[in-house]
Amino acid sequence: MAYEPSEELKNEMLLLQRKVVDDGHAVLVVFEGRNERVQEIVINEFMNLIDPRIVTYSHFTAEGMRDAREIFKTMSHEPAKGKIAVYDRSWYSWIDPSRSDHSDLFALIEELERYFADNGVILIKFFLDSDEKGKGIPEGWMAGANGTFLSDDHKYEIWGNKTSAKILSSTASPYAPWDVVKVGDVLKAGETVLRTFMDRVEGRIKSGYPAPKETVAPLYDNPRENLDLTLKASKYKSELMKLSKELNRLQAKLASSKYSLVILFEGWDAAGKGGSIKRVTRPLNPRGYYVNPVAAPTREEGLHTYLWRFATKMPKAGHISIYDRSWYGRMMVEPIENFCTEEEYGRSAREIRTFEKVMANSGCIVLKFWMEISPEEQLRRFNARAKDPAKQYKITDEDWRNREKWDVYEEYIDRMLAATNTPFAPWIAVESEDKKYGRLKVLKTIVDALSKKLD
After folding, report:
1. How many Å separate Cα 200 from the centre of its chain?
2. Considering the entire predicted model, what is its pTM?
3. Which of 266, 362, 265 is nearest to 319 (CA)?
């Protein structure tokens, strides 16, 4: 027999759901526990009390956490504003029970949960503390389906008695506390979950979560310093051919490896991003790469946290994603044009470092190119585009307006580079005054990075 809450409780739950929808709250509910049967019953009872039009369900396994695209599903399945997302397991599946020290991973998980909370997601975490054999399950209730997709055959060793206390204490925070539900009778546990969920959501709606103010601080070397814009390409055609052949060879090796490759291009307008991308993709098999041109977020993208639209496009193992512009808009155009708040900008470097750390930990090789030219060379290229009918589409009024703000942009750019030039996701400043030199440097950097991992 299913758990049947009182009419009063059901009405309270309905009113709370309407508030979530009408006020545009995003709610993420994470379930972890020792027994998969207990978990599936409690989650099913919980979801049966939510309007199916506003709830989504996602299941994550430890086996699925060995691929970058799978790992980023924990971000890409996040709830939109006005929705509730239920996670049956989560990023805690990343924990390797054979390791004794998880401090680095705990810190990364804490940063990920902080990202959700800071960006308006109401995050609720339940640990269903049950007997590992599933004591308290009514006889014949939701019979298992071992060996099918309905059954989670993986044993969640990380939630054994010896490790669960450490995980719970190490990953509880003011913005993502654990609610431990003692499971004696499984159906009664469902009511506890429901009441706790309502209390948490109502409390967060009333009090909010004031994200602490932060600043973008320089932590690393700025690769723009000491660039030599007089550098010229020599033997361009032969070098281009040699590097292209190497890139083609390395793509084949990447395709059968555990790694993926993310390449992003940022830089001044007319600095040669598009031309460099063309030289990168020319020798590649199109089955193995995708170019992501980044523009202003769509309406759907605006309903999510700002990194969501990028998390949905992460490459799986063996594949390459190329970004023409990227998530670094949060650190340049958005604060300059007032598309984000001061608080959002202030925490952007930390959030992006976390995002890229997850990428690196999941097997992504991350290369970030900053394409550098002088203001004089930019003006020359702008004028050339304006005079050429075949290239006039490349120059817009916005480009001219941005040029007038060169000094402002330069300040934000230097701050961005010095705050995010990490060892696991480095910035490579490319002297692109001579386009051919810049293209060769981009290709050589990619070839060297792949060769280091694959040869």
Report:
1. 25
2. 0.92
3. 362
What digits encode the pLDDT tens for the residues 393-427? Answer: 989 999 999 999 999 999 999 999 999 999 999 99
Q: Would you give the end-to-end CA distance of the chain in angstroms?
A: 60
Contacts of 129 (CB under 8 A, 6+ apart): 33, 34, 164, 180, 181, 182, 183
Q: Give me the residue label for tokens 């059968």.
A: 256
β-bridge mates for residue 371, sequence order = 267, 430
- Among the listed residues 50, 27, 45, 77, the one whose alpha carbon sits nearest the alpha carbon of residue 201: 27
Q: Within 13 Å and on the Cβ side, how many CA atoms surround 30? A: 25
What are the structure tokens assigned to 231, written together?
A: 């550098």
Q: In the sheet where 320-324 sits, what is the strand order?
A: 289-293, 320-324, 260-267, 364-372, 427-431
d(CA 375, CA 386): 16
d(CA 277, CA 268): 15
Helices 273-281 and 236-255, axial angle in degrees (round to 10) = 60
Q: 430 phi and psi, to 5 degrees? A: -115, 120
- In this structure, the number of other CB atoms found within 10 A of the CB of residue 145 comes to 9
Residue 136 has pLDDT above 70, yes or no: no
pLDDT in tens, 315-345: 999 999 999 999 999 999 999 999 999 999 9
Domains in the chain, ordered, with CATH?
7-207 (3.40.50.300), 236-454 (3.40.50.300)
